[in-house]
Design brief:
Elements lengths: L2 H20 L5 H12 L7 H30 L3 H4 L2 H24 L4 H20 L7 H20 L4 H20 L5 H20 L2
């Protein structure tokens, strides 16, 4: 293999790693809340209230699952690789589910609009299905997350009556890039990323429309 091809391959792998690190499914609920609090009528709310809501969402969906993940890793003495084995990954999902249920309870206690709490419902559905499906088939959580974005955008377009074409195009391109990165890093096969995306789209639609 020529030096130019090796350099190109290294750039692709670096880009794939960056995409995998940036578009972590755990970040999506917080990003969704930021968008809704800035791009809908919720932007009229006081800044201190919005910061309180965003802080709570960050704690429940990012900080607490990460701390729980590290605690389990420390208790059992698992390495990073062992923690991501299929039979151990369910523990991380269960921790997330518990934390997301706490976040959903917070949303209900704060009387937030249903379309905001629905973001947490979508995340719960994705995590629950990933736990169940991963017992016999290893699907991509990254792909499920980007698939959920596609489903959520389509569902929100029916609620707020806006044209989702450009948003859908951007989310589909993002989903394709993330799926490609997971395959390039040999984390998943084509079937696993496609299955993850399909699960995410279904969860996005069901969680937003029927919540």
């Amino acid at each position: 293999m020529s030096k130019e091809k090796i350099r190109t391959l290294r750039l692709l792998i670096t880009g794939a790693r960056i995409l995998s690190c940036i578009f972590i499914p755990s970040f999506y609920p917080l990003v969704g809340f930021i968008i809704l609090l800035s791009a809908t009528y919720m932007s009229l709310l006081p800044w201190d209230f919005k910061l309180m809501v965003l802080s709570a969402v960050y704690i429940f969906t990012i900080a607490m699952p990460w701390l729980g993940h590290k605690m389990v890793q420390r208790i059992y003495g698992w390495t990073h690789h062992e923690m991501h084995l299929q039979h151990n990954r369910a523990i991380a999902y269960i921790i997330k589910i518990i934390c997301y249920l706490c976040c959903l309870s917070f949303c209900k206690n704060m009387n937030l609009p249903y379309f905001m709490g629905a973001i947490i419902v979508v995340s719960l559905l994705v995590n629950c299905l990933c736990v169940i499906i991963n017992t016999w088939n290893h699907i991509s959580a990254h792909s499920a997350g980007t698939g959920a974005i596609i489903g959520c955008i389509f569902a929100y377009s029916t609620i707020f009556h806006f044209n989702p074409t450009w948003w859908l195009c951007a989310s589909i391109l993002l989903s394709g890039a993330v799926m490609s990165s997971r395959m390039l890093l040999r984390g998943h096969t084509l079937k696993q990323v496609l299955d993850g995306t399909a699960v995410g789209i279904c969860c996005g639609l069901i969680g937003i429309i029927f919540f």
